[in-house]
Design goal:
The protein contains 10 helices and 9 strands. The protein is of the alpha/beta class. The mean pLDDT is 94. This is Alpha/beta hydrolase fold-3 domain-containing protein.
């Protein structure tokens, strides 16, 4: 189990968060404004109210589009409904911003200019520990689904993606969404079926400590761009004991719960909640390599059963966790281009019109 405290100093964590967020923002700016080719900027920002979470607030959605902006549909002859990709950024659930993945959004739109990429600025820990980020991500899907007809979005082509912590969210969101839709309040919404899921170097098993994760891939600790102190900060910020799921009958913290550890979810739950197509990309120099690969292989074992039709992704060798977010300036990043390029091809199958 990761290092968590029943009563961590939240004020101290918040001060650390501000320092880490400043550095994270600086790196993101260098990537977005000084690394070629320059990625797109969001065309629209929308703030939506949180409804799933018990913690009231608002969630910012950054909308990326090609030449056709996202506008309410009028009485004019409608254009073909547009595919949607909801993306969740990384940062240990505690730092980072929805704009960090502008380069991924730009890559998607280069191949699918009619698509709408929505990057979700979920609320961060330590101010908002688990499960707020997960609930905000579910809220984003529900809001877009409710407004799909207004904005001419194709309900048959909703896909999700995420990086690192956002990869964990992308893998946990379908499970949390499935259970949320069982509630009577959503009875009139109809069934939401995602077309696909793409996770980049996600965490999938929170039952392992950071040391245990490093032990599964010894090169990770030597090559990582993330220090042990930062990992500790991430865990203490997000995993506030009071809000963590409990094991039935014992009341003990359950780190194997699928909201935290989607890689440990039961086969029946995964086949019920997951879309037909899933892709998981892992990094060769990452402490999350083994658990990510194991989950991809587990899903491959489900292929041909009920909904699970295609499982893609691969190991990006000789790169650390978060390698694609490092500013490349004029040098480019061939490993990133290869990973993003394959992920875009995965989207082609997910968004294919029957």
């Amino acid at each position: 189990m990761p290092s968590i405290s029943p009563s961590p100093n939240r004020s101290g964590l918040a001060k650390k968060a501000n320092r880490y967020r400043f550095l994270s923002t600086l790196l993101s700016l260098l990537d977005r404004y000084l690394s070629l080719p320059l990625p797109k900027s969001p065309r629209l920002e929308i703030a939506i109210p949180s409804k799933v979470s018990k913690t009231p607030g608002s969630i910012e959605l950054l909308i990326y589009t090609g030449s056709t902006p996202l506008c309410p549909r009028h009485n004019n002859p409608p254009l073909p409904a547009r595919p949607v990709l909801l993306n969740f950024h990384g940062g240990g659930f505690s730092i980072g911003h929805a704009q960090d993945d502008a380069r991924w959004a730009s890559t998607v739109l280069k191949s699918y200019p009619d698509a709408v990429v929505v990057s979700v600025n979920y609320r961060l820990a330590p101010e908002h520990p688990f499960p707020v980020a997960l609930e905000d991500s579910v809220d984003a899907i529900l809001w877009l689904w409710q407004h799909a007809d207004l904005y001419n979005l194709d309900k048959k082509r909703f896909a999700v993606s995420g990086f690192s912590a956002g990869g964990n969210l992308a893998l946990a969101v379908p499970i949390r969404l499935h259970e949320e839709l069982q509630k009577e309040r959503w009875a009139g919404l109809g069934k939401i079926e995602l077309a696909g899921l793409i996770a980049f170097y996600p965490s999938v098993d929170w039952t392992r400590t950071r040391a245990e994760r490093d032990a599964t891939n010894p090169v990770a600790a030597k090559k990582s761009m993330i220090s042990p102190a930062m990992y500790k900060f991430f865990d203490e910020s997000y995993l506030l004991v009071a809000g963590l799921p409990r094991r039935r009958g014992t009341g003990r913290v359950d780190m194997s719960h699928p909201y935290l550890s989607p890689g440990l979810a039961t086969e029946s739950l995964l086949l019920t909640a997951y879309p037909e197509a899933v892709a998981i990309y892992t990094c060769g120099w990452d402490q999350l390599l083994v658990e990510g690969n194991a989950f991809r292989e587990r899903l491959e074992g489900f292929m041909g059963q009920e909904k699970m039709g295609r499982v893609g992704g691969f190991v990006v060798e000789d790169v650390p966790h978060g390698f694609d977010k490092k500013p490349s300036f004029w040098k480019g990043n061939k490993a990133r281009e290869r990973m993003y390029g394959d992920a875009v091809r995965q989207l082609e199958g997910m968004w294919k019109v029957d």
